[in-house]
User: Fold RluA family pseudouridine synthase from Rouxiella chamberiensis.
Amino acid sequence: MSKIIDTFIAPPCHDEIEILYQDSHLVLVNKPAGLLSLSGKNPQNLDSVHHRLVKVFPGCTLVHRLDFGTSGLMVIARNKPVNAALCQQFSQRTVTKVYSALLCGHLENNEGTIDAPIAKDPALFPLMSLCAIHGKPARSRYRVIERCFHTPGDGTPLPVTRVELTPETGRTHQLRIHSQQLGHPILGCDLYGGLLLPGTEQTSRLMLHASELHFVHPVTHEVIKALCASPF
Assistant:
């Protein structure tokens, strides 16, 4: 198998992490777009959600990650037992994650499901690929919120559909590649066709935001329904 070489260098992110909730067990944050969840091996990729938060909350660990270009809700564990309990909820798929996105073009159907297995392919890194034979099961649901127009930097109105995306599995790049499979990539997605249509190259960011996170607090057992409005 060919070796994966990651040459990506993250540009500086000047936006702050917004702390939405904190107690002695966990922290809920709003991650800005353009910030790594975890520091990379390259010293130039040191800045990340974890790198910043561990200075404020010593010993905190990530339970899950968001892509570099994705903004929105993340839950951070403040100790190992809480991390283990939250990780178990994620692995058992009892956590509900809902995303807001702008998809290129106007979708025909108001809702639907994308069921397409996703596989890693070192030859295509950093892209993932759809593969019925070697891919792991991946399923996403979408629901149209509105069909409208988005005007990026050059003033050209682009037809877009605002959708609510709910991944039932948690594969790398799942929502991005499933949206492409739907024929309507996420606006601003550099890897899966979201910058190919005329006018889309002016898009400032990946139009994907983690807007809801539902889980059970590992200590109080309270049902947490965290909400974070989309910035676009």
